[in-house]
Amino acid sequence: MTDATPEGGQRRLRAGVIGLGWAGQQHVAAYAADPTVDLVALSAMEEHLLDRFGEEHDVPGRYQDWKQMIAEAELDVVSIATPTFLHRPMAVHALEAGLHVIAEKPMAETGEAAADMVSAARAAGRVLDVSFNHRRRGNVTALKSVVDSGVLGKLYYAKTGWVRRQGIPGLGTWFTKAASAGGGAMMDIGIHMLDMTLHLMGEPEVTAVSASTHAEFGPLGRGGSGFGVSQVEEGVPFEVEDLATAFLRLDGGGTMLLESSWAQWIPHDLCYVTLYGADGGAHIEWGGDAARPQITVWTEVAGMPAELQPAVGEDGHHAAAVADFLQKVRSGDTAAHDGSLALRRAQVIDACYASAEAGGEVAVAR
Ligand SMILES: NC(=O)c1ccc[n+]([C@@H]2O[C@H](COP(=O)([O-])OP(=O)(O)OC[C@H]3O[C@@H](n4cnc5c(N)ncnc54)[C@H](O)[C@@H]3O)[C@@H](O)[C@H]2O)c1
């Protein structure tokens, strides 16, 4: 299935990608640019996308039937970038066939589905990873270094959000159906900010949440962005939220406020994280005023209040997420990379929807 590089270096890996919307295209680009990988197979419903990306990257295997791809293409690794409700069946099948899997976020439509994926990875002894590409942004990795330096002291509070003015993806496609997407703005973009902020805070467990959801734009056919390559179906009801807000309790006594919206009457789209520590605070944002520094840190220097603006490195995005996945595969340490961290994110999102439904605080299931 694999062969060594001529220089005796890293084992070459045979990669495939299922799904060729925006997300799948990022995985295709990441594998195509990696000299240690052979991108050998693609699967999607759209023949024109199979042809386009197959020709662009000289990919021999092109399949409308993803199971046929897994049976025939002799893959080591596969990226799953299909509508969210397909992540579980595709990942479980691929893992059982002996492949290492990276799925797009959200990991699955429910925590239960995500747990099935983790169980399959453990049983197969294969890596299961989830693509949290936004935590690879230069400002996020730089802020992580700031946090890890200890300059902010103990972190006890965070505010974070991704809010859009008009950005409902695929109105009338799988994106806005409850069963196929699992949820709306919180599931789609809130999950990135949840992941990033917990990562920045050093992975505290979320113990309980109190959340609310609203749908003021989608049901009226307003706020759409036209994102996605999937077919729009006439008359599909808008079954998910276009705004979700949540208050999260963290073990150790910390708290987090998380907001996510696909559409809102606001001046412009914005992503932000503000961290509050005992010895300093820090803020990153993007999508707003471009002139703002990418990180601001407030602390004391020589007993005086100080505002610092650390230098920010390059963005990593999907290429970095895929490179990380490949490194996990090559490490051979499948037990350490079974998708558990992404499962915990899915359980928090589950709890947010349960809380919104119940109208009160709920504990996060484990
Ligand atoms: N990480 C990110 O920043 C990011 C951004 C966008 C989307 N996503 C995630 O990626 C996933 C896909 O989103 P998208 O926007 O690319 O969706 P999309 O609707 O634009 O594309 C979906 C793709 O999946 C393919 N597909 C559907 N059913 C299939 C089947 N049975 N066999 C083979 N292919 C099939 C379609 O043909 C299409 O190519 C979702 O889970 C979404 O949440 C992640």
From TrEMBL:
Source species, domain of life: Bacteria
Protein name: Predicted dehydrogenase
Gene3D superfamilies noted in UniProt: Dihydrodipicolinate Reductase, domain 2, NAD(P)-binding Rossmann-like Domain
GO molecular function annotations of the record: nucleotide binding; oxidoreductase activity
Entry keywords, A to Z: NAD, Oxidoreductase
Protein's organism: Brachybacterium faecium (strain ATCC 43885 / DSM 4810 / JCM 11609 / LMG 19847 / NBRC 14762 / NCIMB 9860 / 6-10)
Domain annotation GFO/IDH/MocA-like oxidoreductase: ranges: 141-281
Domain (Gfo/Idh/MocA-like oxidoreductase N-terminal) ranges: 13-131
Membrane-crossing residue ranges in chain numbering: none
